[in-house]
Amino acid sequence: MRFRAKIVDLACLNHFSRVINTIARLAKTCTLRLTVGKLYFILSDKVANGGVSMWCELCQGNFFDEFQMEGVAAEHNEIYLELVPENLSRALKSAQSAKAVKIKLTNKHCPCLRVAVELPSLTSSSRMVTHDIPVGVIPRRLWNDFREPSVPDFDVSIYLPVLKTMKSVVERMKNLSNSIVIEANLSGEMNLKIETDLVSVTTHFKDLGNPPWGSEDGSQSSAQSRDLESMAEARIDIKKLQQLLAGQQVNPTKALCNIVSKRIVHFILLHEDVSLQYFIPALA
Q1: Alpha-carbon span 245 to 167, nearest angstrom
Q2: Average pLDDT, the chain
Q3: Rounded to whole angstroms, how far apart are CA atoms 207 and 127?
Q4: Could you read off the pLDDT of 66-108 as tens digits, one per residue?
Q5: What positions belong to coiled-coil segments (predicted)?
Q6: Distances (CA, A) of 229 to 25, 185, 186, 190, 232
Q7: What 3-state class would DSSP assign to 124?
Q8: How many other C-beta atoms can be found within 10 angstroms of the C-beta atom of residue 213?
Q9: Angle at CA 31, nearest 5°, toward 27 and 37?
Q10: For the chain, which domains are there?
Q11: What are the backbone angles phi and psi of residue 61, rounded to the nearest 5°?
Q12: What is the DSSP string of 176-220?
């Protein structure tokens, strides 16, 4: 089981750092899955227990100049590690002007991701800063716990408004209520609502557009057969939504959400080579 990678391009390094910073804001611990072509950061708090889930996917070729990995076995050419993303985020903070960053899986006293940052120097020799980040190796028998969540059979799918606008609305609402209702329809309308004994506040968004989801077998999903004006809604924990909006540094080119009425809200943020999915279960 081996893994080593190197980033030389500064733009790629800064982009990778922003993704890691986002993960660190969303998850205290997560699973890093390494394959030949991709990296995945996975948080699978059981939705049934009221926890959020996250699935972040990166194409390694768009970030790394070198990338070598050998999985646990030839037929299972993957590695699953448990780590604290904040530790990786801190290590990359020292790399903002680096000449190169090398990441390697080591096992001296315990399994670690070694992040070696080569910094520019005034002399001919370069300075190296090394961070050892403890990781746990997840055994093969547990891998099935970390499979990609399936896209739920949603009632409504809608593009999100500008995330900065949505963030400022949610931050103001957070002071008034612990929960927020997200409702949307297939006419590109979305409302954010809070209702308490003392106050009722609704923010309306129009003309957002609805993504064209075509099913592979040509069958109708529940979204395709519903009334265009009919609202699907879910009440969710406002802090979990605010955490996503405040934490994301991916700056997506496309952001959308799928609502399964009264069950779950599924957010998808896309930026060229990164996709981030975030699932927030509905409150009872």
Answers
A1: 5
A2: 90
A3: 53
A4: 999 999 888 889 999 999 999 999 999 988 888 999 999 999 8
A5: none
A6: 35, 6, 6, 11, 10
A7: coil
A8: 13
A9: 120
A10: 2-146 (3.70.10.10), 156-262 (3.70.10.10)
A11: -65, -20
A12: T-SEEEEEE-TTS-EEEEEE-SS-EEEEEE----------TT-PP
| Residues, the chain | 284
Separation between Cα atoms, residue 37 and residue 181, nearest integer Å: 38
In single-letter form, the type of residue at position 229 comes to E
225-259 CB burial, b ≥16 within 10 A, e <16? eeeeeebbbbbbbbebbbbbbebbebebeebbbbb
Render pLDDT for 100-123 as a digit per residue (tens, 0 to 9).
999 999 998 899 999 999 988 777
Q: What is the pTM of this model?
A: 0.90
User: If you ran DSSP here, which 8-state letter would residue 143 be given?
Assistant: G
CA distance 258 to 236: 13
- Say what the pLDDT of residue 249 is: 84
CA–CA distances in Å: residue 51 to residues 18, 97, 228, 262: 24, 37, 31, 15
